[in-house]
Structure formats: C-alpha cells, structure tokens
Amino acid sequence: MSAGVGVDLENLWIRFGDFVAVRDANVNINGGDFFSFLGPSGCGKTTILRAVSGFLEPSEGKVLIGGKDMRGIGPNKRPTALIFQNLALFPLMKVWENITFSLEISGASAKERRKRADELLDMIALPDQGDKLPSELSGGQRQRVAIARALCAEPDVLLLDEPLSALDLKLRQHMRTELREIQKRVGITFIYITHDQGEALTMSDNIAVMRAGVIDQIADGKTIYNDPNTAFAASFVGENNVFRGKIKQIMGNEALISTNRSGELVARISTANQGKLAVGDDAMMFIRPEAFAIASDGASGDHFVTARVNHEEFEGNVFNIFTEGDGGKEIKVSLPNLGQSFDDHTGQNITLEYETRNAVLVPAGELAAE
Amino acid sequence: MRFWFRRVNWPRNKGPTMPGFLKEFFNRNGIGMGAAILGLVLFWTIGLIILPQLSMLDFSFRPNLPPPEIGGPKDVYTLENYKYLIYGPEGGSQSYNAVDLRVFFRTLLAAVCVTVFNLILCYPIAYYLGQSKGNHIRIFAIMLIIPYWINEILRAFALRIIFGETGVLNTLFVGLGIWDTPFDFIRNDIALYAGLGYAYILLMIFPMYNVIESLDKNQIEAARDLGAPWWRIHWRVVIPYAKPGISSGCTMVFMLSAGALAAPQILGGPSSLWFTQLIYQQFNDNNDWPQGAAYAIVLLVTCILFVLAMMRLFKVNMGDIGK
Amino acid sequence: MNNSFLRVSIWVYLVIFFLYLLGPLVIMSVTAFNSSAFPRMTPWECLTFQWFGELFQDQRILNGIKNSLIIGAGTVVLSVAMGLAGALMLTQIWPKLRATYYTIIIAPILIPGVVLGISTLVFWDRINRMLGLGADSFLSNGIFLTVIGQSTFIASYCMLVLVARLQRYDVALTEAALDLGATHAQAFRKILLPFMRPAIASAAVLAFLASFENYNTTTFTFGEYPTLTIELAQKVRYGITPAISALAFIIVALTVFFALLNEAKLKRQELVAAARKSATVEELAGKVKLPSLFAGNMAAVLLVVFAVATITVVGTATAYNPGQCIANVKEQKRLEAEQRIQELRKQREEQRKKREAEEAEQGGAQQSTPKPSNNSGFGNVFAPNTLGGDAEEESSDTETPPSNNGGFGGVFDPNSLQTDQ
C-alpha cells in the first residue's frame, strides 16, 4: 500500500502565544492510507491539519510530504487538498465551476474544464447537476461536490476536516462507505479529522487518538479499541466501564488490582504498558459493556463483579442493563440480541463475569469527558 | 458572523507579539496583497487622518508669515492665535474678543437646540418605522432617503425659497391675514434652524431606527399588559433600549450642525455668524491660515469634549457610538 | 376611541413630518417652471422652460459638473480602495489595537468637514514646501487636494458599508481557493471580490453622492477647480435665480428615478428568489420571465409612470412656447406699476381737490360734495388697459372696478390691440 505519498510529522509543536495547541507530535502516515485523527473538539487535531495543508507554520518540528520538508511552502504550492468542515463551496459559482476551480487557476479552457467536471460529476453520481448553484443542492450532494472539487486538483494527499459532521445520521453512515470507496478508487492518502469514533473505526487504516495537543496512541482501529494505551484512549473510543484501584500484584502480563469499590479483580496489562507498571501504582481497569456475561448467582472470585440492577433498556441490537456495583459505581452491560428472552432483573442482585483478556489495565489518567 | 470572528481571532487572542501579528498577517494575505492592504490602511490612517490633524495643530501655534519667512527665525511657536479668540486683537478697544466669543457660544448652543429639536421630531418616526411592518415602510424609507441624496446647497436653497420675504410661507400667512407684513424668518434665524434640522434628519432617524427595529415587540406588549401607559412604556422600555441609537444620532447631528458651513452661509441672517464662517473668513478673506487653524482646533476639541461630557452624563459607552 | 385617536394622530404627524421633509423639494422643483425671475411659487406667472435653457448655457455650471465628475471618480476609486483595505484590516487586526484602530478610522465621520478641509490643505501645503515644489505643483492641485480631503471621511462610510458584508464572508472560502492552487491575488479577485461586489457597488454610489454634494471640505481645497456644489453655493449666496431650481429639479428627478429603479430591481430579485425557491432548474428558465415585472411590484409601476411623465414633460417643453404668456405677465406688471403710480396721482389729485374744496367751502358751501367717481373715472384714462387685460387673461385683476373709461383707455395701448387680433 505504498503507492501514494506519505506524510510525516516530526517533533511537531504548534503554539499560539503561551497556549500549546500541538505538543511534540510524531506521526508517520503511509502513502495510500486512510488515516484518522480522532479526538474531542479543541484537542488540536484541526491545528495539525492546517499545519499539513500549509495554513499554519509549525512553531517547531517538521511537516514532510513525500519525504520533502514543507517549511516555507504555502498552501497553494502543496500537493494537498483540504475539504473544509463547512465545505467552503464558492457560493457564487455553479457546481461545475466549483469543481474545476483548480483548473481555472492553472489556465485550462472552459471546454476542457466542462469535460473534466462532467467526468467528476459522474464519479460522484451527480450527473447533470453541474449548472446548479451549491445552495440548490442537498447536504449530501454538496458534500460530494466538495470531494470532487478537491479531487479535481489531483492532490497527493486529501485532508478532510470533519466533513460529515453537518449531515444527519443516515446520510453520515452512507457517506462513510462512500468515502472509503472513493479513497480506494483514487488510491491517494486521506487524512481524516473527526471526533466521531464510529467514523474513525469504520473508515481508517490507522487512527491517532489525540487529547489536549498530545497524541496518545497511533494504531489500527482494532488495536485502539481492544488494547488502548491510556485511560483517555480507553474511555474516548467506544463505551467502557472503568474500575479505579491500586496494583496489588503483577503476574507477567496480568495484574491483580484492588479496586476502590468492587474488590480485587484480575486484568491484562495493555501492550504499551507492559513492564512499565509496578505494584502500588494507581491504575485503571476497563471492561467493555459487551464483554460482560451474567454468571450464575453466588459465583465469586477475581473475575466476578456483583451488582444491583438499576434499570434496563432494549436498544434493538442489544439489551442494556445498568447496574450499581458494590460501592455504588455504575456498570453498563450490553447483551447482544440473539433472540433469547430477557428477564427483568430490576432491583435484583446479579453477578457479572468477564474474561481476563477483555479487562485492560492502563495507568491512572485523565478520562474523556462524557 | 460569529463564526467569522471566532475563526479569525481565536489563535491570536492568546496575545502574540506585534511582529508575530505582522508575520501572520502576511501569511494570511500573501506578500503582495498584504502589502497593498497595509499600504492603503497606513496611507489612510496616518497620511490622511493623523498627520493632517497634527499638522494643523502645529500650524495653529505659529504666527502668520509670508511664505519666504516660513521656517525662518520668526517662525516660532506662539499662543497668539488662541489668545486672539479670547482677547481679540492686541491693543483692541475691548478687553475680550466679544464678537468671536459670542459667535462661538451661540454656535454651540444653537447646535444643541438643533440636536434636541431633531431628536424630538425624529423619535416618533423612528419608533413608528421600527415597529411597523408592511410595504409602506419601504416607501417611507425611500421618501426619507431621497432628500438626503439632494445636494446640501440645494436643500438650503429650497428652504430659502420657502422662508424668503416673498416666499411660500409669508405669502400664505399674509394671504390668510394672519400677519399684516411678511415675517423675516431669515433675520430671526428660524430659517437657519429649520435648515440645519432639515439637513440632518436622516442621521438622527437611522441609528435610532436600527436599534428600535431590533427591540422585541413582546417587551412592549408585556409592559402594556402590566398596565403601563404609553409614555411610561417609552420612558422605561423603549428609550433605555434605544439609548445607543439615540446617542449615535445625537452625536452625529450635534457634530455636523456645529461644523455646518453651507446652511449658515445661505440661510443665516446678515448679522448672525456661525463659528465655521469665522474660520472660513480667516482662511479665505483674511488669508490668516494659522488663525483659522487655531479656530478649527478650538471647534474640534470643544465639540469632542462636549460629546464626551454628554456621554458621561447620560452614561453611554463609547463603543455604542457609530453602530 | 382612544386607539383610533392615536392612529389618526400618528398619521397626522407622519403627514406633517413628510411635508417638512419633501415639501421644500417639491416647492423648489415647481419654482423651476415659473417664469418669475425670482424663484417663487406664488404668485404663479407663466409655465416656462426657459430656466433649463439658461442652466445649460451657464459655463460655470457646466464646468462645475465636469470638475465634480472628475473629482467624484477619483474619490470613488480612492475611498472604496481604502475602505475595503480598512475593512479587511479591521477583521484581522491584532486585537489589542482593534479599538484604537476603529476609533481612528471612524473619527473622520464625526470631525467637522471644515476641519478636514483645513487640515488637508495645511498638511499638503507643508509637504509641498518640504519637497521644494512650487505653488502649481501636483500636490497643491485643487483636484488632488479635493479627492484626498473628501476621501478622508468618505472612506469611512465605505468601510462601514463594506465591513457589514465582509462579516458575512467565510474566510474558509479564501483558504479553499488557496488550497486549490490559487495565489493570494487570484483568491482575492476570484472569490472575495465577487462576494463583495454588491457592497462595493453600494459603497461606490454612496462615495460618489457624498463627493458630489460635499461642500464643507471642498470649499477649502478646490483651488482652481470649483465643483458644481461650490458653484451653486456661490450663486445661492450672491443672488438666486430659478436656473438653480431647474438644476435642483433635474437632480430631484434623477434621484427619484434611480431610487425607484433600485427598488424595482430589489423587488424583482425578491420575486425571482421566491420563484426560484419553488422551482427546479428546468422550470427556472421559463418561470422567471413569467411573473411579469409589475406583479406586486409597486416601484416598477411607479417607475413606468415616472418615465411616461418625463416623456410628456419633455415633449411639452419642446412644443410649448410661453412667450405669449410672459409678454402678458410683463404687460400686466407694467400695468400694475402704472396703476400704482396712477393711484398715487389720484391720491394727490384728491388731496388737491380736497384742498380746493376746502378753499371753496370757505368761499361757497354749495359745492362741498364732489362725487369721487368722477375723479376716479378721470384718473382711469391714464390706466388704459384694465379692460384689455380683463378680456384676455384670467390672471388679470378682476376686482378692478369696471370703469366707463376703460374701453376708451384701451385705444391708447398698442399691446391690447395686438392681443385682440
């Protein structure tokens, strides 16, 4: 997959006065990858994108595109094309003029541009819409026009700044697939910015999880979901139940934690933290709601949590049980809907069971805001 | 609009340095465009606004010399031009320059009167236009703007036709037998006040209209619901809300009336001068530029101080003006 | 009852207000068509177009218009450019400087025009001297000084108009253009400028009007190039003629015309936008033309009425010859004057008679009451054409008591003979 042009960030710092927006970012993005920066708003991911596209000069460090240092090269000279959060379609130009703006700049004839526009309109499945104004299109159509406009510039790297955030849920899910397909078809590097972990997980080859200017983890989606590096990554990507405690004992890659409220439990130390944790450290254990199973009554040990059921809800694909743990901590359990019958447990005490590989231990740290 | 400002300002609210700002400015606009924008702005602010004012200030402290002597030994700073306004010519018969001082205070007082007159005249109209809906409002707006597009001189001329000795008003009143002999509107300055008020109606209405238009109708409804009489609704709800507009309008009308030249020249009586006319005379008839500059400075500074004092008195913020 | 009283008083107030606002303009316009040599509406003498002719033969007025156009063009270019630069700077200036900067660029609106004119004159005169240039250099040229002086404050107006639109501009559009390979200049020309075009047009019109009508600043800076406004002021100050009314009428008419045109255009755009909303692209081409220009568009209707009226007036003006009427009025004035003289004489005669009577009374009491009618009849012999006027003109003084001697008197008046034919 090294057909495209790669992007590297080396020791990248970006400061605005005293405020550090990006702190020592090191990222290697392979050519032809679909790479996502995932993080809450204000974490600095858009800043990184603007540094790559050339609207911002890094305070320190380098941005390399195709191995070439981009310092001093303006956005109009870089082989990147940016799709803006609000799309930034030129409101006074017709759709076809929008799409072929880069050709207009390079001095192509109107006829040539029209031809290219029709090709691209076919590609984004909007034939015969070229003479409309952007304001006459629907949200999803505008989205696709913005992509076509960026692709028309034949960039080596396409940068997307939360392009789906303005769409409704159905359309957003549809556009995910479509974007991924377009990326596969054109084969260039996509750098995608989002705060929606669903988008990042479904589309990306690799994901960088960002928090307050710092990149916590870079890995593929499965790794990030199953084997997070930090408490933030564990709590931001997907839903998770957190158990705080101190490490009581370390057994190879596993550890026994004495939790604050649920007694002593066994967990697997996450890959990045193996060998770095010591007995007595504050740590956090994460178990996904779907990793629990209901055990028979009275079972106990270091794989079992007892809890009292607060309320339950049926979500269609899953059945959610919200329980109150020993010390009053809430635990969410999701049982897949496989056609079984769900008993009403409200008010009862149940015992939950998990497997060690599904309980991930990381050093105590900042959690993602709810 | 919110979006624009947030986007533009966010990075720099963290307090970068001046060179940092310039660097970013050129990054954002490019070297060529940035230089063009910066050049035009500097030319305007410094070359056309600041330096000429400073130059006039400097000039007002110099004696009136023939061109060859400028920069020579006699070209020294002096307060003479300002003293002249207060004490009159040296060795004059009077201890104070009564004529010029009287003109000066009369001008200020008259400008205040014109402002108050305009405020009272325009407030109901601004309120009506701001709170009514419908096609006729647009027609009213056009009718308001049209006179403003007509030359200042011609507007004064129109009033002169009306207020003249054989003008429409006198013909009408004498014809109806209300007066026996034509009333001299011009000598009594009525024509002048009417003309000044006439000239700046729009400048009074628009700022007030803009504010009142944004006043939520429900507030008035609520006040009426609570049984407030109409004058109390205005006093307690509308006027406090419209204060920025009222102060903008009053400031503009006052400054422009005090600085008016055409209307006093055309509509003023032969015996009553406007302060700007004195300045005009110093420049064009007496050829005494430094003296004229000193008078201009006095006018400018007094007007600004007066407006600031009024704003403090009525508790208006500087930021509200010019909206 | 209270409510309707309020409504009536609002309307009365509106009527009075707009009378104050528009009345002077109407009266001034009307005086342009009265043949009286002093601009007045009453007494109405004759409908005439002569003042327009006089206006167009006035070299100073024509020259003033030329200068005004040159200066206006220069001011528009300079103020719109500075206003746009000022607005762009305002939206991205260093925040600590913003308040100061805003105060500086807004101040010229509030500084009296007289002060601006003087400071411009003084400053550029000094620059001129510093550079060692003569009194006829470019820097002391009236056109240059006036353009500079007017632009100082007109640019502030332009800035306000432009910044209002600029605030609705999304900088991401410029960034998108840059990102797609445009240079900064291209992004400005192809993206920002088209977006700003309506505001730039408004600012340009505003700048031109402000320049055209400016007096206070220009009066200090015009040098050898008096603008129309300066010429008008000179004329108005030293003797007014209806030719000025004629010019005023033209300006009022043009203003009304363009105001209506603009309103009609806006209304049309609204209608088109409304139509567009409910139409697909295929329908649009046909549908936009369908709602006639006049449907629901008051301004357009008025515009057409206005145009028809203009054509009628101009048509009448070319065909109409007020010479006859003017001659009559002149004649009548002469008569009135004579009549006045006559009355004076009559009074004198009466006094003489009285004295004689008194003297006679002293002599003989019988002759004490001479009939005054005899005397008046006698006097009227010298006011020969009251009747001639009567027969001819409604404007003639019908209250003149019919006199036996009137017909007789008419014989002496050659004019009345001519009019009889």
From TrEMBL, chain A:
<dbReference type="GO" id="GO:0043190">
    <property type="term" value="C:ATP-binding cassette (ABC) transporter complex"/>
</dbReference>
<dbReference type="Pfam" id="PF08402">
    <property type="entry name" value="TOBE_2"/>
</dbReference>
<dbReference type="InterPro" id="IPR003593">
    <property type="entry name" value="AAA+_ATPase"/>
</dbReference>
<dbReference type="InterPro" id="IPR008995">
    <property type="entry name" value="Mo/tungstate-bd_C_term_dom"/>
</dbReference>
<dbReference type="GO" id="GO:0016887">
    <property type="term" value="F:ATP hydrolysis activity"/>
</dbReference>
<dbReference type="InterPro" id="IPR003439">
    <property type="entry name" value="ABC_transporter-like_ATP-bd"/>
</dbReference>
<protein>
    <submittedName>
        <fullName>Spermidine/putrescine import ATP-binding protein PotA</fullName>
        <ecNumber>3.6.3.31</ecNumber>
    </submittedName>
</protein>
<feature type="domain" description="ABC transporter">
    <location>
        <begin position="7"/>
        <end position="237"/>
    </location>
</feature>
<keyword id="KW-0378">Hydrolase</keyword>
<dbReference type="InterPro" id="IPR013611">
    <property type="entry name" value="Transp-assoc_OB_typ2"/>
</dbReference>
<dbReference type="InterPro" id="IPR050093">
    <property type="entry name" value="ABC_SmlMolc_Importer"/>
</dbReference>
<keyword id="KW-0547">Nucleotide-binding</keyword>
<dbReference type="InterPro" id="IPR027417">
    <property type="entry name" value="P-loop_NTPase"/>
</dbReference>
<dbReference type="GO" id="GO:0140359">
    <property type="term" value="F:ABC-type transporter activity"/>
</dbReference>
<keyword id="KW-0067">ATP-binding</keyword>
<comment type="similarity">
    <text>Belongs to the ABC transporter superfamily.</text>
</comment>
<keyword id="KW-0813">Transport</keyword>
<dbReference type="Pfam" id="PF00005">
    <property type="entry name" value="ABC_tran"/>
</dbReference>
<dbReference type="InterPro" id="IPR017871">
    <property type="entry name" value="ABC_transporter-like_CS"/>
</dbReference>
<dbReference type="GO" id="GO:0005524">
    <property type="term" value="F:ATP binding"/>
</dbReference>
